[in-house]
Structure formats: structure tokens, C-alpha cells
């Protein structure tokens, strides 16, 4: 009878594992992941508002049929203010001036809209994709508060039980087209 040869396996032998390709992949992958994660950022800019205005904003959010005001900014046409009040929609435009956005005319139009709708403190901003970031910030500044200290708007103060005056127009700006493809 033949005996089977026993194969000797040396379990104590050492071998080298080449990790250079794995490290090369990791070195290239980490920056790609870091860069791609910063493409979409949603930010909330906290601002200090008077308590009366903050309470009015909260009351307006609880309203079942609030008045909605949206501002469309187009590089070719200028501004379009859309007011949706009790199901009725009206639009008002502010055209370009010398091929540029007419911010003083926009401010005057927003003051007029705020006087007609003093209970509204929120505006939806819908800028065109071609509008530069700096112009969007300027539009937000125009909508936030009245520049003239003589221009004020009534706000009902629940603690005093009467209307008080504020210079804030639309301090709550919401981007309505933020997540478009």
C-alpha cells in the first residue's frame, strides 16, 4: 500500500501585501468626495427681528389662507411681483432700466405692495439662473426693509393690544426655485 505524502504547510511564512494601489485610489477618491459634497448648500441666515415682527410672522404662518407674494427676477424682463390674495392673482412689473435691474423702482413697488398687504412679511424670491449672486443679495436688501425712515408699516402688538409701526417689509425671504434640476 502506498502512503500518501503529507504536504508540509508552513504557517509561519511571511508575505508582503502591496497596498500602493489601494492608497492611490484613496488619495484620489477623498478629494472627489469632499468637492462633490459641497455643491448643494441650504443655508438659513438668522437675523435679529423685533419681537412684534417675529410674532406677526408666526401668526401669518398659522393663517389658513395667507396672502402670498412672490418676486420673479429675470435678466431680460426685470421684476414681476405676483400677489395671490384669497385665490385672486395679480401681477405687477418693474422693467429693466438701461438694460440693468432697476432696484430703486423695485423698492418703491415693494413699499406699495407692503402698504396694501401690511400683514404679510414673507416673500418668495424666484431669480432666473442668469442673475448674479450679488444682484440677488441686493434684491433681498431692497425687500427687507424700507430705506426711508419716514416710511413705516403697522403691525399688531398682542402685548399692547394695538398697532405699532415698523420699517420691516419682507424680512423673511424664501427661494422658491432653489432645488430645480
How would you describe this protein?
The protein is α/β, with parallel strands linked by helices and 181 residues long. The protein contains four helices and seven strands. The chain has helices at residues 20-36, 51-62, 103-116, 133-144, and strands spanning 68-74, 78-85, 88-94, 122-127, 153-157, 162-166, 172-175. Strand 1 (68-74) and strand 2 (78-85) form a beta hairpin. Helix 3 (103-116) runs parallel beside helix 4 (133-144). The longest helix is centred in the first third of the chain and has 17 residues, at 20-36. It starts with 19 loop residues before the first helix and ends in a 6-residue tail after the last strand. The model has no long low-confidence stretch (mean pLDDT 82).
CA-CA gap between termini? 79 Å
Low-confidence segments, given as residue ranges, are none
Give the strand order, joined by hyphens, for the main sheet: 3-2-1-4-7
- Approximately how much beta-strand content do the residues carry? 15-25%
Mean pLDDT: 82
Bin the helical content.
25-40%
Biggest sheet layout? 5 strands, mixed
Structure annotation, total helices: 4
Structural class: alpha/beta
Order of helices and strands: HHEEEHEHEEE
* Principal-axes shape call: elongated
Give Rg in angstroms: 30 Å
Total strands: the figure is 7
Amino acid at each position: 500500500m502506498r502512503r500518501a505524502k503529507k504536504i508540509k504547510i508552513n504557517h509561519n511564512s511571511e508575505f508582503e501585501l502591496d497596498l500602493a494601489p489601494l492608497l492611490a485610489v484613496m488619495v484620489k477618491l477623498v478629494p472627489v468626495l469632499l468637492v462633490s459634497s459641497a455643491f448643494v448648500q441650504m443655508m438659513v441666515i438668522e437675523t435679529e427681528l423685533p419681537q412684534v415682527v417675529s410674532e406677526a410672522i408666526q401668526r401669518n404662518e398659522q393663517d389658513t389662507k395667507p396672502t402670498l407674494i412672490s418676486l420673479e427676477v429675470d435678466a431680460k424682463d426685470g421684476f414681476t411681483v405676483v400677489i395671490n390674495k384669497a385665490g385672486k392673482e395679480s401681477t405687477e412689473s418693474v422693467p429693466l432700466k438701461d438694460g440693468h435691474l432697476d432696484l430703486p423702482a423695485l423698492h418703491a413697488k415693494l413699499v406699495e405692495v407692503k402698504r396694501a398687504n401690511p400683514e404679510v412679511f414673507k416673500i418668495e424670491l424666484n431669480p432666473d439662473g442668469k442673475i448674479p449672486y450679488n444682484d440677488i443679495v441686493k434684491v433681498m436688501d431692497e425687500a427687507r426693509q424700507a430705506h426711508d425712515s419716514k416710511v413705516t408699516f403697522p403691525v399688531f402688538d398682542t402685548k399692547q393690544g394695538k398697532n405699532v409701526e415698523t420699517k420691516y417689509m419682507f424680512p423673511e425671504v424664501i427661494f422658491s426655485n432653489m432645488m430645480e434640476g
